Amino acid sequence: SYELTQPPSVSVSPGRTATITCSGDSLGNYYVSWYQQRQGQSPVVVIYQDTMRPSGIPERFSGSHSGNTATLTISGTQAMDEADYYCQAWHSSTPVVFGGGTKVTVL
Amino acid sequence: QVQLQESGPGLVKPSQTLSLTCTVSGGSISSGDYYWTWIRQPPGGGLEWIGYIYYSGSTYYNPTLKSRVTVSKDSSRNQFSLNLTSVTAADTAMYYCASYKKFYFDYWGQGALVTVSS
Hints:
The complex is a heterodimer.
Chain A: E1 9-12, E2 18-23, E3 32-37, E4 44-47, E5 61-66, E6 69-74, E7 83-89, E8 97-98, E9 102-106
Parallel strand pairs in A: 1-9
Antiparallel strand pairs in A: 2-6, 3-4, 3-7, 5-6, 7-8, 7-9
Chain B: E1 3-7, E2 11-12, E3 18-25, E4 35-41, E5 48-53, E6 59-61, E7 69-74, E8 79-84, E9 93-101, E10 104-108, E11 112-116
Parallel strand pairs in B: 2-11
Antiparallel strand pairs in B: 1-3, 3-8, 4-5, 4-9, 5-6, 7-8, 9-10, 9-11
């Protein structure tokens, strides 16, 4: 089965930049979306189609995709950004695949 | 804006069938805009896609769950449902319904916690 790999955790100081990666075989052929899930809440999409930011999502969230790795960047990280982040892609073998999730801690 | 709300029993006995319903408002499940989806998350774990149904009735399931899963819809009530058979403790999870707009989920329900226990 297809897998997306994320680092389990990322730590960042307030005001600094957090970077979360998502990698998978042939990921370059597919769009990647990113979801933020705060404790006790449902996930919320923060980036879709690699780089698109939904309305209402702060500009400090950005996405990129190069080859088989997609990246979510949080610039000027705030305490409210502390959450779990999941990447997700469509794949020909499985229509929906999620990464294992990355816990972002703002120290 | 689409809103989704899960409903169903919070406790299911082992070997029985888990049944949940998602009620959609602010959008029609009979339109071709979305794939209506079920996703679950075990306590402390990550997200797992279960399956989805399209307005045409076509369904797509996670291969790892396919033998036990059925997703159906009731267009007259603007609802879609999940049946998961032969449940075990490993099926204990928060179950979310969501709308999938190629290729991302733009709306999610608040989730329904289902515990499998005798």
